[in-house]
Amino acid sequence: MTATANTTPATASTVGTVIRTGAAATVAASLATMAVAAAGNLAGISLDMGGAPIPVTGFGVLTAVFSLIGVVIAALLARFARRARRTFVRTTVLLTALSLVPDVIADAATATKALLMLTHLVAAVIVIPAVARRLAA
Fold first, then answer.
1. Of 73, 83, 69, 81, which Cα lies nearest the Cα of 29?
2. What gap in Å lies between CA 70 and CA 27, rounded to an integer?
3. How far is residue 88's CA from residue 86's CA, in Å, rounded to a whole number?
4. Residue-level pLDDT at 8
């Protein structure tokens, strides 16, 4: 009987799975935040901040950018962290909470601020659990 050594790193498939799942979650979150922004706007909530309107597509673009940063964090944690899932969840929950601060102090109506914060939470609820499920506990 002969044995062969597996030279493929054990984390290679995990990192790939994290990236694929994260990309899909990013698309879903971007679409969801645009839908929330559009629905809020249709309900009469202004999308003006500092006197300039925020385009609905802007919600999707910024959601994608920051979600992909989260996916990169997850991929790095999958590769290097001992407790990747726990570290990812704690980090991203903290970053989500910090992302609400600019909305609170923004030059916008109260309803607009609430809508902005809601879009952050919607994105987090979609991306964080989807990616965390793919990380080692």
1. 69
2. 13
3. 5
4. 45
